[in-house]
What we know:
- The protein is of the alpha+beta class.
- The protein has a domain at 33-80 and 94-128: Immunoglobulin-like.
- The protein contains one helix and seven strands.
- The N and C termini lie far apart (102 Å).
Amino acid sequence: xxxxxxxxxxxxxxxxxxxxFESFLDSFNSMSNVNWSPSVDLEETKNDYIIHAELPGMNxxxxxxxxxxxxxxxxxxxxxxxxxxxxxxxxxxIMSGHFSxxxxxxxxxxxxxxxxxxxxxxxxxxxxxxxxxxxxxxQIS
Length: 141
């Protein structure tokens, strides 16, 4: 008995589509040195603005923080993982290369007292509000 495929043309088309997407995705896998951007959370408390930036696989010495004209910039370079000559990379999704994130600061901050801490791959930048920006309760006499 001969095995007959029900839709041979459909299988051929599916293979063409699979080949197209496989070659398309391969081009992205080879782009490990493109610019990337870390994920950040920005929160506001009564006294501060706080930025949490996820920078896994980086060292704090590879990160720069600057403030100029009311713009805080976090930038750095994430080094590409070195592949051994005995291995063959099948999937490469970990981004590397230069990054830069900038945040416009409100006018009512104390830029002289900005603090940054490094905790297990997360950069925490604490930006204190100036006394003018803090809420004040006014007593009625």
